[in-house]
Design goal:
heterotrimer, A mainly alpha (317), B mainly alpha (295), C alpha/beta (455), A: 317 residues, mainly alpha, MetI-like fold, 2 domains, B: 295 residues, 13 helices, globular
């Protein structure tokens, strides 16, 4: 049942190591490790606490699910999904989610790449700068959401005060009261908190780019732009795809910042897909519908991830 | 060709004099300025939060903007400590985070090793199954997980949280570690095996020490995920003696008013472990990410 | 392995030898991993169990026939102290054999938490619910019906009309009033003095003329602040004008939300706002605007409507603003403000119904009501008013207003109705619709909402 990748090399082993190899054979024969055993702990956790709930959720999406003991949950087939397609509030939520992805992901990547290019080794205290830029990534969404809500408050908020300095008169703009400005706050939180992550990944990628090839190109008289375009960018391509996939998933599944800052308000106009689903479940008690939203989005994102990973994986290790 | 002759010469230069990515003296001052701007923007809100945590009640939340408190006070910290039993919260969060980190690292390492070094049936299927859940945020599964935990009698227990968090962190960790293990040169491992090392020996004596960078990354992310998680913790935990730090933070938001001062004081205290964990792991971070098969 | 130097080979072999020396432990190494994991589990289990010592003790005492009730709420600060150190000890003294465990949670996810527990069949025995949720909990069958219980009539004998109405669903009661609040008119004495107005308004027409007099654009000062277009903030004006939102059974909005009186009240507010050039400040179009934070204390808004919770905030400011509180000025419909507050629900799925009923009754007793009133949660009973005011003088205006307070539509669809009304009102303020058009649309949408069809 086991297939040892080392097995084929047996014949090529020099004589000097043969005695040790006999021990090795012995060891292998007595071994009972299989790859499945190794995967079991992780798989056990995962199957019970992630896979099972996901399937349960998917199952629930086909019912008008009442969660209280003793109440009936009628089977309604695809009704929840068809309702999904007609619901105007879903369109708002999908629109906001899409906006969030389209705006925060490229900005995070661009800023991250820019910062990575700027903050290379040759800078004094570069370790310090890098650490400082990354720290927002390790902060908690809860902490940051409350902080930003306070900074953008209309009375005594940092942002309005600074704007007031520029405008010359007191500014009491209520950021969280209009849809567009509330969205701006949410985007800023996402971008601020996320830039450090793509920064670090691009930094590693840029650092790893073969310097001699770059230098060869430079010596050859190529312009900086040409070097970037033909040498650097292709070699960090994998990182770009990796960052892109994860950022898109993270952006499409954004929840905490929206929930804590606006709760989807004003009047559900800043809802993203998952805050809307959460509301449907816990405010409107439409658990089946909420499950449908979650399931559909998961399938879409899963398909997207699969496609991207296929692009990423077979580049050779 | 001129290139073939010049390049090796360049490569043999000592690192200190080898030109950087953008050339040695290119825009150094500008880059420094840009670094400063990035650092300022990244740290600005957090520094402001620290300032807020020392502002007395007469200055904070009253509609006046105060950058630095005129009468800094530690009253907020005292209040935060008392009203939500911050000490207890920190203890609980530490337990949960530590448990999550250990279990995630162990299980993910074993699984990643299997994926990296073995061929077995359904290998890729299982791998993609792990990755599939990246598309589902944990908050979406709250009700099924609650019902499950109830049946396992793990409601209101920190262990329940650990189990869910570990499960949520496994996909990314396995992915990262698999890439990392696959990047370790096979020859090293060959000689290890031929000298009698078992597979587990290879894992613990060769790969583990080599992969401390990647393990540090995995540990850091697992720590942060567990330390910061709010929705599931709130739903599953029923007694205040089991509250974790994020729940405590939300307690400062009352139905009518918000206790901003203590909230920010507690936030500062909550963020310190995040920063400390990062600083500790920072040494190995960069190399861990680059070898994680991402390139 | 071609290409390696001899030295490298030796080093590797050495490492390998160390491995082979230890190889006797190879079979144990997997066990070691498993053991470590198990130990790790055990350690955390102990730690977690250690922190749940209280729960363990509860089980023991239950075995000794003591019942422990769980009471979930979102009390904080001094409210927690009051419930834990004043109310519960007294109850436990009067009822030996029953213990109460009051557990507080953040407000943000309190209802989802309760629902999850109810879904699992383990709801807390008692639950402090926002009055807006009672109808939902009733319609879902999680709240115990109480009006047919023998002690009910006596307990709610002196309950204020507003709070009592919030406990009703389809003509039955599913919760008990727990605490309440309402709002009144705050007036800035400095602004009034500067405008030469000696006393605050008592009628709506006085309110309007005073507000106009105190609107000074050059000073960025407005006469009146209305916090939002929500039903909560707008209802005083609607009701005092004689308007309404729905019928008495909360099933229909057409004919009420778009009635002549309601439209008149809306028209008054629109004229007051006048596209931003009137006497009503810009807070009205911001749904999270809070005049009480900055505009009122600083005098930027001369008047606005708020609840008793604003007082401690103002007292903490430096300098303390000079202000007074009076009831909502009266109009053709009288003077009416909305009822806020919380009810207490006994979970139908709870395990100790009889004991829970005892505690619920105790929460409604004057002792408990007054204890909570002294820390900001006003009593829901009229016979406590005098004592309340003695302890907390600034409650006076609010206790009076409570006797006249109305309730917002008591329905599990209230949220949608509120949204329909606010959206339409905002559109009218922005000039996108006339008052008639807007209110007709709001009424039609609210009809849909009340019928259970989300619009």
């Amino acid at each position: 049942m086991e297939r040892r990748s080392a097995a084929p090399s047996l014949g090529a082993v020099p004589a000097s190591v043969r005695p040790a190899r006999r021990l090795a054979l012995h060891a292998r024969a007595g071994r009972f490790l299989t790859p499945y055993l190794l995967v079991v702990p992780a798989a056990a956790f995962y199957a019970v606490f992630t896979i099972y709930p996901i399937f349960r959720q998917f199952d629930v999406s086909f019912f008008n699910w009442q969660i209280f003991p003793g109440s009936q949950s009628p089977f309604i087939g695809w009704s929840n999904y068809s309702h999904l397609l007609q619901d105007p509030e879903i369109r708002t939520a999908a629109y906001n989610t899409g906006l969030y992805v389209v705006i925060t992901v490229p900005v995070q990547m661009a800023l991250g790449l820019f910062a990575a290019a700027m903050l290379t080794d040759r800078l004094p205290a570069s370790t310090l700068w890098r650490a400082l830029v990354f720290i927002p990534v390790v902060t908690s969404w809860v902490v940051v959401s409350f902080l930003f809500a306070y900074m953008f408050s209309p009375s005594g908020g940092l942002v309005d005060t600074v704007l007031g300095l520029f405008a010359g008169h007191a500014v009491h703009f209520d950021w969280l009261a209009q849809t567009w400005s509330a969205n701006v706050v949410i985007w800023l939180v996402g971008i601020w908190k996320g830039v450090g992550w793509s920064f670090i990944i691009f930094l590693a990628a840029l650092d790893g780019t073969a310097r001699d090839v770059i230098e060869a190109g430079r010596v050859d008289g190529a312009s900086e732009r040409r070097i970037w375009r033909s040498i650097i960018i292709p070699s960090i391509r994998q990182s770009v795809v990796f960052v892109l996939v994860l950022l898109v998933i993270g952006a499409a599944t954004v929840f905490q910042s929206v929930w804590l800052i606006t709760v989807g308000g004003p009047y559900g106009s800043t809802n993203v897909l998952y805050t809307y689903a959460y509301q449907q479940a816990f405010t409107d008690f439409a658990f089946g519908y909420a499950a449908a939203i979650g399931s559909l989005l998961a399938v879409v994102l899963f398909g997207l991830s699969l496609a991207e990973i296929q692009v990423l994986r077979p580049r050779g290790d | 060709m001129a290139v073939a002759i010049e390049a090796p010469t360049q490569a043999r230069l000592k690192p200190a004099t080898r030109p950087g990515l953008l050339g040695v003296k290119t825009w150094k001052k500008t880059r420094l300025a840009i670094a400063l701007v990035f650092a300022l923007i990244s740290m600005g809100p957090l520094l402001y939060m620290i300032s807020l945590s020392f502002q007395p009640a007469s200055e904070i939340g009253t509609g006046n903007f105060v950058l630095l408190p005129s009468h800094p006070t530690i009253q907020n910290y005292v209040q935060a400590w008392d009203t939500v039993s911050l000490g207890r919260l920190l203890l609980n969060s530490t337990i949960v985070a530590a448990g999550t980190v250990v279990l995630t690292v162990v299980c993910a390492s074993l699984a990643a090793f299997a994926f990296a070094r073995y061929k077995f049936r359904f290998k890729e299927v299982i791998f993609y199954l792990f990755l599939a859940s990246l598309a589902v945020p944990s908050v979406e599964l709250v009700i099924p997980q609650y019902l499950l935990m109830d049946r396992l009698h793990l409601i209101d227990s920190l262990i329940g949280l650990i189990l869910i968090y570990v499960s949520a962190n496994l996909p990314f960790s396995i992915f990262l570690l698999r890439g990392f293990f696959e990047a370790v040169p096979r020859e090293l491992e060959e000689s290890f095996r031929l000298d009698g090392a078992t597979n587990l020996g290879v894992l613990t004596r060769l790969l583990a020490p080599l992969s401390i960078p990647a393990l540090a990354v995995v540990a850091l992310f697992a720590f942060n995920a567990a330390w910061d998680e709010f929705v599931i913790a709130l739903t599953l935990i029923n007694s205040s003696s089991h509250f974790t730090v994020p729940i405590g933070l939300a307690l400062f938001i009352g139905s009518h008013t918000t206790a901003w001062g203590p909230l920010f004081a507690a936030s500062v205290v909550a963020t310190v472990p995040n920063v400390v964990a990062f600083v500790i792991s920072q040494r190995w971070f960069k190399s861990g990410v680059s070898l994680g098969g991402i390139r | 392995m071609a290409g390696r130097s001899v030295g490298e080979m030796d080093k590797l072999r050495e490492r390998g030898n160390i491995v082979s020396v230890l190889k006797n432990k190879r079979a144990r190494s997997l066990t070691t991993v498993a053991l470590c994991t198990a130990i790790g589990f055990g350690a955390f289990a102990t730690a977690a169990a250690g922190t749940s010592g209280a729960a363990v003790q509860t089980n023991r005492s239950r075995a000794a026939s003591t019942v422990t009730l769980s009471f979930w709420n979102n009390y904080n600060g001094s409210e927690v102290t009051t419930i834990n150190k004043v109310i519960i000890p007294r109850f436990e003294k009067l009822n030996p054999g029953i213990k109460v465990n009051s557990q507080y949670f953040p407000y943000a996810n309190l209802l989802p938490k309760y629902l999850a527990a109810a879904a699992a069949g383990n709801p807390p025995d008692l639950f402090r619910t926002d009055i807006a949720w009672t109808a939902e909990l009733a319609s879902d069958g999680v709240a115990l019906q109480v009006n047919d219980l023998p002690w009910y009539k006596a307990t709610v004998k002196d309950a204020l009309p507003g709070p009592l109405q919030t406990t009703e669903y389809k003509k039955n009661a599913y919760s008990l009033p727990l605490d309440t609040n309402t709002i009144a008119l705050f007036w800035n004495k400095t602004d009034f003095a500067a405008a030469g107005i000696k006393s605050p308004p008592t009628t709506i027409s006085q309110l309007i003329s005073d507000a106009k007099a105190m609107t000074i654009p050059s000073k960025d000062q407005y006469g009146l602040g209305v916090d939002s277009t929500d039903v909560w903030d707008v209802s005083p004006y609607i009701w005092s004008e004689g308007g309404s939102f729905t019928n008495a059974g909360y099933t229909k909005a057409t004919g009420y939300m778009n009635s002549g009186a309601t439209r008149a009240a809306v028209k008054m507010l629109v004229e007051g706002y006048d596209g931003g050039h009137g006497y009503i400040g810009p807070d009205i179009i911001s749904t999270t605007g809070d005049s009480g934070e900055a505009e009122f204390p600083s005098g930027k808004y001369a008047m606005y409507i708020d609840g008793p919770w604003a007082v401690p905030t103002f007292q903490a400011l430096k300098p303390v603003p000079s202000y007074g509180i009076v009831p909502m000025p009266a109009g053709p419909g009288g003077s009416h403000t909305p009822t806020g507050g919380e009810d207490v629900v006994i979970s139908k799925g709870g395990k100790h119904l009889a004991d829970s009923e005892l505690f619920a009754q105790f929460l409604d007793s004057p002792f408990s009501q007054l204890a909570m009133a002294s820390v900001g949660e006003m009593s829901a009973f009229s016979n406590d008013a005098a004592q309340e005011v003695k302890t907390t003088p600034y409650y006076k205006t609010f206790t009076e207003a409570l006797t006249q307070a109305y309730v917002r539509p008591v329905s599990q669809y209230y949220g949608d109705v509120d949204t329909d009304f606010s959206n339409a009102f905002e559109a009218i303020l922005a000039g996108k619709m006339t008052v008639t058009e807007g209110m007709n649309q709001a009424a039609a949408e609210a009809d849909n909402a009340l019928a259970g069809r989300s619009s």
